[in-house]
Specification:
It is built from eleven helices and ten strands. By secondary structure, the chain is of the alpha+beta class. The strands form four sheets. A four-stranded antiparallel β-sheet has the order 1-2-7-4, with helices on both faces. The protein has a two-stranded parallel ribbon with strand order 3-10. The model has no long low-confidence stretch (mean pLDDT 93).
């Protein structure tokens, strides 16, 4: 006889797969004992640079029951974004996750559908959907839910599919069957540490966010410090180096989400095209893209820094 907890868990995982998620894992909504001192230490060493928002809501970041009242389970979900085609090699580079429609919109819609499905099939279940825009430690929850392990580059890694995927959560007040964490399979490999152009991975599993190219090109609002001149490896928005060199990403397979397909003009654009980009072209190519986060002025700042 299958009890309700098991039945509901299977129901949710089956629906998550139907909605296009790569995988789904569940963990108990509780205080993240191991993450608390790690996060505190990271913040105390100022490794978040100008991302002051990381200092806010510390208690909620490490305890989902303070974020969602009465919560019992964290349902973690992965959504593949690995593209079938990439930019021309004669271009300034854009992180692969930003090729298509802004993932926040795509995933939020899927999460809402999943929550409605749970409410329709199971009953009065309350919860909230999260896509990296709230104080939730996505990678820690995904690892706790058995979806992968945190690699030396601090990204979540999965043996079968690598790391080119988004992480999202539903935090709900329903008790479910909880998954077990998986083991670390980085071994003695230091490919990501050795390849980081700005030496942002200061030791295994510790990234100094203020040196990371993704931070410098997206989060940082001031001018990029001159100490990074010649070290940006032509990245104008985000950076994929630590993922590109990771042996586990040999197993990445192209996504099948049409909304993540790039604007037709994007992949063929050369450095010259980027240098001459107008605000109108920017708005057309990045109409619904995550790149809008830097605004036109931010992207121009990055391109100008790269060509100096």
């Amino acid at each position: 006889m299958i009890d309700n907890k098991t039945k509901f868990t299977q129901l949710i995982k089956t629906e998550a797969k139907r909605l296009g998620f790569l995988s789904c894992g569940v963990s108990k909504a509780e205080f993240l004992e191991e993450e608390a001192p790690r996060l505190e230490n990271w913040l105390n060493h100022n490794r978040h640079g100008d991302m002051r928002y990381m200092e806010n809501h510390f208690d909620k970041r490490i305890d989902p029951t303070k974020l969602v009242e009465g919560s019992k389970s964290v349902v973690s979900l992965l959504l593949n974004y690995f593209p079938s085609d990439t930019q021309t090699s004669k271009s300034f580079k854009l992180s692969k996750y930003a090729y298509g429609t802004d993932y926040h919109f795509v995933i939020k819609d899927k999460l809402k559908s999943l929550l409605h499905f749970i409410q329709d099939e199971i009953g009065a279940v309350n919860g909230r959907a999260f896509v990296d825009s709230a104080p939730v430690l996505d990678k820690a929850w995904a690892a706790k839910s058995g979806l992968g392990w945190i690699g030396k580059h601090s990204n979540l890694l999965t043996q079968q599919v690598g790391s080119f995927y988004f992480i999202a959560e539903l935090i709900i007040d329903l008790e479910l069957d909880y998954d077990m964490p998986t083991t670390d399979h980085c071994g003695t490999c230091t490919a990501c540490i050795d390849a980081c152009p700005t030496e942002a991975i200061i030791e295994p599993y510790v990234v100094d966010g203020s040196k990371c190219i993704s931070y410098l090109t997206i989060e940082l609002k001031d001018n990029i410090p001159m100490e990074f001149k010649g070290k940006m490896d032509n990245w104008m928005f985000g950076c994929d180096v630590c993922q590109d060199v990771c042996p586990w990403n040999r197993f990445s397979k192209p996504h099948n989400e049409p909304l993540f397909n790039p604007h037709p003009e994007l992949l063929g654009m050369t450095k010259k095209d980027w240098e001459e980009i107008t605000e109108d072209t920017f708005k057309k190519v990045f109409k619904k893209s995550a790149v809008k986060r830097t605004k036109f002025s931010g992207l121009k700042r990055n391109i100008n820094f790269l060509k100096q």
